[in-house]
Amino acid sequence: MRMKDRVAIVTGGGGIIGRAIVKRFHEEGARVVIVGRKREKLDAAYDEAGVPPQNRVPLVGDVVDEATNEEMVRLALERFGRLDTIVTSVFWSKTADLPDVTLDEWNQCLGVTLTSTFLAAKHGFPAILKTAGRGSLTAISSVHGSFPAARYAMYATAKAGLNMLVRALALDYTAKGIRVNAVSPGATTYGGGEWNPTIAVGTQLIYLIGRYVRPEEIGNAVLFLASDEAAAITGQNLTVDGGGTISLHDWVAGEASRRSKASG
């Protein structure tokens, strides 16, 4: 029971990674406030985790809205009397060439993916220090924060900014009692992903474990960083990608060589 009697807020708790985090936190004794845009997804996350009705605190709202961040902290304190940890597991983006990205879309990507964590920290950190004395924030980043992909400019930029925000917050708050870290997943699907014959060879070469990452594996990583087992870890970015970023360069180089030979 690594999170016994602790209280957590998980933004994006209705997503595939967020649900896994909520479940692991509940299994380890935490009470969790979930924030998201669709009530049915929040309810499904609580159902999947087996959280009893009296411990459910779903908040439907926009994480880029400062009022939503104020409310999620208020609810945690009102219902459970304290706040120990925050997990931000939200993003918005689209795959597109830059001329096809509108300014509103660019701002939405930066807002949901990056600014939301700033707001969660701004309103959550004082509550953590006042009620628990110490705690943590873990942001769900991405391997693309370090390794951009084609037509992924705004997503990669937002995640890279998130990585730096994590380090900056760790510098400012670790000595005060709040550790701040990130988890960068590779491609994550239920069951490790079904094989698509058109991409199977590339997937097998990139993902050294022979499959995609499972949501519960991200949940395990976040649970570890939020627990006392990670008391000496702060300002770090834990990559959970099945070895994908190790082998990516070799696969890309090999694919380029193959195409070059095929074209004569």
Features:
264 residues, alpha/beta, 14% strand
Topology:
Layout: E1 7-11, H1 16-27, E2 31-36, H2 39-49, E3 57-60, H3 66-80, E4 85-88, H4 103-131, E5 135-140, H5 153-173, E6 178-185, H6 200-206, H7 215-226, E7 237-240, H8 244-262
Parallel strand pairs: 1-2, 1-4, 2-3, 4-5, 5-6, 6-7
Catalogue the unreliable spans: none
- Report the span from N to C terminus: 61 Å
Assign the CATH architecture.
3-Layer(aba) Sandwich
Structural class: alpha/beta
CATH-assigned homologous superfamily: NAD(P)-binding Rossmann-like Domain
Percentage of residues in helical conformation? 40-55%
Largest sheet: 7 strands, parallel
How confident is the prediction overall: mean pLDDT? 91
* String of helices and strands: EHEHEHEHEHEHHEH
SS elements, strand count: 7
Task: List the domain count as a whole number.
Answer: 1
Annotation field: number of helices: 8
* CATH T-level fold name: Rossmann fold
How much of the sequence lies in strands comes to: 5-15%
CATH class bucket: Alpha Beta
- Please tell me how large the radius of gyration is: 19 Å
